[in-house]
Amino acid sequence: MRSVGVLLLTAFAFACVVNAFGRTPVESYIANRQTSIDSYIANQSPIAKLGLLANIGPDGSKSSGAKAGVVIASPNTVDPNYLYSWIRDASLTFKVIAEKVVSGEDTSLRGKIDQFFESQKRLQQVSNPSGTVSTGGLAEPKFNIDETAFTGSWGRPQRDGPALRATTFILYANWLIANGNITWVTRNLWPVLKLDLDYVQNNWNRSTFDLWEEINSSSFFTTAVQHRALREGATLAQKLGQADVISGYNTQAANLLCFQQTYKNIARGYFTANTGGGRSGIDSNTILTSIHLFDPTAGCDAATFQPCSDVALSNLKVYVDSFRSIYAINNGFAANEAVATGRYPEDPWYLSTFAVAEQLYDALIVWEQQQRINVNATSLTFFRQFIPNLATGSYAASTSTYSTLVTSVKNFADGFILINAKYTPSDGSLAEQYTRANGSPLSARDLTWSYASALTAFAARDGFIPPSWGASGLTVPSSCAANPVPTVSVTFNVQATTVFGENIFLVGSVSELRNWSPDNAIPLSSASYPTWSVTVDLPGSTIVEYKYIRKNGNDVVWASDPNWRWETPASGSATLNDNWR
Ligand SMILES: *[C@@H]1O[C@H](CO)[C@@H](O)[C@H](O)[C@H]1NC(C)=O
Ligand SMILES: *[C@@H]1O[C@H](CO)[C@@H](O)[C@H](O)[C@H]1NC(C)=O
Ligand SMILES: *[C@@H]1O[C@H](CO)[C@@H](O)[C@H](O)[C@H]1NC(C)=O
Ligand SMILES: *[C@@H]1O[C@H](CO)[C@@H](O)[C@H](O)[C@H]1NC(C)=O
After folding, report:
1. Which residues partner with 458 through β-bridges?
2. Which of 135, 224, 270, 506 falls between 20 and 30 A from 534, CA-CA?
3. What is the β-pairing status of strands 487-495 and 555-558?
4. Is residue 125 part of a domain?
5. What residues make up the domain containing 345?
6. CA of 125 to the centre of ligand 2 (A)
């Protein structure tokens, strides 16, 4: 067991009043801990808000050069250079801001949302390495802070971006409508939002880089946030009289909800973060999913992975436990105490640790609403951390079991805040990570998302109830339908003179063009020599790069650089006429 004193000797000023009120040591510890967390939050909350606003152009104090409404990820320019604007980070940051506006906590931030809106509207139209607005460019993960395209190599596309941006705008749109401003929403906001929602509807069933930009497969977070966006998008469309999109959005939302269930690893009690990547799949991706999906009207629904659902609690325990033995700073904690957590077993992140606290606070909000905690086989191991011999059952608020569980979960949640508090420097700045060895800040300084995660965790602790996004009463389809990507029939013609024994082949950047593998290259026909030709079905609205190669026995000669590069149309057929070079 770690000594109680360690936790209290944190960076923030706090006078320890041991036994001043005639308490036992344990009672003092609990009281002191309460004071320390309140004092940390009281200090850190305004710092986090200022830290977040400092990273938004045009006038944020740490974001000079960023256009109006552009969110920089961090002012850090070396090791790593994060002076870019990510669609994901920016959308989640503005979700926090929109929540402050719609809840009435700070309506002075409304002008910033309008600037963010104008900026995103421009960015949607910036053609970039993922494509144009109509050929996949909406899933480009990051841009330069002057709103030009980032053209370096990167893990792209990342298909959570359009969905997260849509959720932020829908939050704002619903508030504007409730305040009598349906005209602006219909005329200005809807056309921008519809581009993102249509993108999600048409492209969710394609592989994506995950939110950590490392793994190209299907990702639980991406699937879940896409589901939410289409679901609430359909409801908004109804309000705005945009009847033509509703059934399409709802159909794909149902397919997404079905697909979301398939990430469940029943045997091991968690949700696998990504279908690819070769790691265990235990990842804060899933914790971030549960807090992003929190809908106070959905109770502890398991299908939508509500924070208090049996599956999300089981998942939380497996995730948190995976960090107990791998960090030096987690040594000596009891098996049911809060510890520092990271994205997956690597260095601890502030935002991951805050997210665990937030999921637990969200759960507490719902138990309080329901005046009841249900414990079933799936969630039993989570709850047994606090009452070792607990039985499954339904515990009403009048029972002592309920009180013990609520108090224990609250303390457990507070523990995660206190861990971050312990490793917050005295000026309150929040970097991206801290070291597993001694907790000193690591990687990018002043990470906007770290500040955002502090604000949302504190708000949840205060009982903040976000608006519903429609998670209540949904039915998971009994079998999961795919959403086939439209294909285009493309004829490749190339003029090439060859010697006897030589043949022309085609390879390119998509699996239909054999992913650049010369061994598997597609042979062309010489029936119309010197025109060599082949017809291939390619995915629609996709950028493809390709090259012709000449093979003669084991000799392979590639056409000279650069690659041919072309965007396929949305549907139909096309012919390309090239000359060997
Ligand atoms: C509606 O909201 C937009 C965005 O904030 C604002 O520009 C416009 O003035 C508002 N219109 C009315 C009538 O309030
Ligand atoms: C597409 O959807 C089907 C049905 O849910 C699923 O099995 C498949 O893994 C999905 N593929 C991607 C890349 O999302
Ligand atoms: C466990 O309880 C939750 C509600 O708290 C319910 O949604 C879920 O289906 C239950 N799971 C099992 C395995 O009984
Ligand atoms: C990502 O995976 C898909 C499916 O395997 C593949 O078609 C695509 O080329 C991959 N993208 C990158 C950039 O590796």
Report:
1. none
2. 135
3. unpaired
4. yes
5. 282-466
6. 28
Minimal-distance CA residue to ligand 4 atom 1: 216
Q: Answer yes or no: is 184 within a domain.
A: yes
**Domain final position from 432, 466, 500:** 466
Structure tokens belonging to residue 249: 């959005």
Per the CB < 8 A criterion, the answer to whether 469 and 104 are in contact is: no
Task: State the CATH number of the domain containing residue 555.
Answer: 2.60.40.10
End-to-end distance of the chain based on CA atoms, in angstroms?
70
Statement to judge: residues 250 and 304 lie in one domain: no
**Residue type present at position 129:** P
Ligand 1 cavity residues, CB under 6 Å: 114, 176, 181, 184
**Rg of the chain over all Cα atoms, to the nearest angstrom:** 26
What length does the chain have? 581
- Please state whether the predicted TM-score (pTM) of the whole model is above 0.90: no
**Can you tell me the distance from the alpha carbon of 224 to that of 406, in angstroms, rounded to the nearest whole number?**
28
Amino acid at residue number 42? A
∠ CA 308-314-316, rounded to 5°: 80
Q: 210 an active-site residue?
A: yes
Our answer to whether residue 537 is catalytic in this structure is no
Confirm whether 45 is domain-assigned. Answer: no
pLDDT tens for residues 312-330?
999 999 999 999 999 999 9
What is the distance in A from the centroid of ligand 4 to the CA of 215?
10
- In 194-328, beta strands by DSSP E: 208-209, 216-217, 264-265, 270-271
Helix residue spans in 435-516 (DSSP H): 448-461
- 528 and 386 within one domain: no
**pLDDT for 212-236, tens place per residue?**
999 999 999 999 999 999 999 999 9
Token output for 324: 């107990």
pLDDT for 34 equals: 74
> Contact, 366 vs 306, CB < 8 A?
yes
C-alpha closest to that of 266 among 222, 208, 318: 318
CA 302 – ligand 3 centroid, Å: 7
What's the CATH code of the domain at 408? 1.50.10.10
CB 422 within 8 A of CB 312: no
- Does one domain contain both 293 and 442? yes
CA distance 51 to 75: 11
